Amino acid sequence: MAWLSRKKQAEPEIDPANIPRHVAVIMDGNGRWAQQRGLPRTAGHSAGSETFRKAADTLARLGVEAFTVYAFSTENWKRPPEEVSAIMGLLDKYLHEAVRDMREKNIRLYFWGDTSPLSPSLRTLIEETQKISESTSGMRVNVCLNYGGRDELTRACRALAQQCEDGALKAADITGEMLENRLYSAGVSDPDLLIRPGGERRISNFLLWQLAYTEFVFSDVLWPDFGEKEILSAIAEYQRRKRRYGGIG
Ligand code: FPP
After folding, report:
1. Which residue lies with its CA nearest to atom 2 of ligand 1?
2. What is the set of active-site residues?
3. Is residue 245 one of the residues assigned to a domain?
4. How far is the CA of 10 from the centre of ligand 1 (A)?
5. pTM of the model
6. Does a structural domain hold residue 157?
7. Mind listing the pLDDT tens digit for each residue in 21-73?
8. Contact residues of ligand 1, CB 6 A cut-off
9. What does the pLDDT look like over 190-220, one tens digit per residue?
10. With pLDDT > 70 as the criterion, what percentage of the chain qualifies?
11. pLDDT value at position 3?
12. Which atom from ligand 1 is nearest to the alpha carbon of 32?
């Protein structure tokens, strides 16, 4: 029984009454994980997509309401074409599985970003998952795909400016809420917790508006190695934070 108590000690204590409603993750470190093993970078993305599936299961089990991941940024097109197509292939595989499993798992799947340059097959799968999401009610998974925070804000500003140009809105009447309603995240509460594995400590053009009061947890563990233990310790770290939202608490 000694291993049982050891295991118990190693598991971070989580307060079930203070689970973050919305968790966002920058899935960083896939390339280095592969390189450390003498594998092509694409093997790291493949391992990273498995970690994503497991993380979604863990977070759903804990009662998290929304899980947002950075899968492909507006800047990631600069990567070698074989790496871009490997990531698109992994998304295609995940979407096929999602169409098959999301009713049983009761998850809702949404895509944040400009999906118009994606392949017709990916876009069809995305549409299918959106339809299924109308009949499921569980955790919402937001996959940021061809997403950039600056691009998202630029589009929202353009939409509001167009309304002003059409005479439907006065610039002086624009509110933060109006801008929020034009973001991909409209209607979804801001992330409570952002996890960035992989050792870097930057935001990388992710959810620039939505992360205003989010708690950040950085980790040196590379994303493919970011298992349940790491998720639980990030949540435990979040639970030790005192959120003040600019006040004095
Ligand atoms: C960042 O690591 C990771 C990416 C740019 C791609 C993430 C994509 C996946 C995990 C696969 C598809 C996603 C889903 C949701 C099925 P990096 O390549 O920048 O790592 P490095 O910093 O070590 O080079």
Report:
1. 28
2. 28, 76
3. no
4. 28
5. 0.94
6. no
7. 999 999 999 999 999 999 999 999 999 999 999 999 999 999 999 999 999 99
8. 27-32, 45, 48-49, 52, 69, 71, 76, 87, 90-91, 94, 143, 198
9. 999 999 999 999 999 999 999 999 999 999 9
10. 96
11. 39
12. 23
Q: Is 86 a member of any domain?
A: yes
Count Cβ atoms within 10 A of the Cβ of residue 21 and give its class: 0-12 exposed, 13-18 middle, 19 or more buried.
middle
What CATH number is associated with residue 133?
3.40.1180.10
43 CA distance to ligand 1 centroid (A)?
A: 10
Average predicted confidence (pLDDT) for the chain: 95
Within 10 angstroms of residue 185's Cβ, the number of other Cβ atoms is 21
- Closest atom of ligand 1 to 143 CA is 15
Q: Contact at 8 Å (CB) between 21 and 66?
A: yes
Residue with tokens 């955790």: 139
Containing domain of residue 35, as a range? 2-6+21-148+192-239
Q: Which residues partner with 218 through β-bridges?
A: 196
Give the residue, out of 39, 54, 85, 87, with the most ligand 1 atoms within 8 A of its beta carbon, to mutate for a pocket test: 87
**In terms of Cα–Cα distance, which of 145, 58, 150, 137 is closest to 103?**
137
Number of domain units in the chain: 1
CA of 29 from ligand 1 middle (Å) equals 7
> How far does residue 233's CA lie from ligand 1's centre (Å)?
22
- Asked whether residue 4 carries a pLDDT value surpassing 60, the answer given is no
- In this structure, what token pair is assigned to residue 209? 């508006």
pLDDT of residue 160: 98
Structure confidence at residue 9 (pLDDT): 53
- Report, as an integer, the average pLDDT of 112-130: 97
Torsion of CA 6, 7, 12, 18, to 10 degrees: -130
Query: Do the domain assignments include residue 55?
Result: yes
C-alpha to C-alpha distance for 62 and 21, rounded to whole angstroms: 10
Q: Nearest residue CA, atom 6 of ligand 1?
A: 71
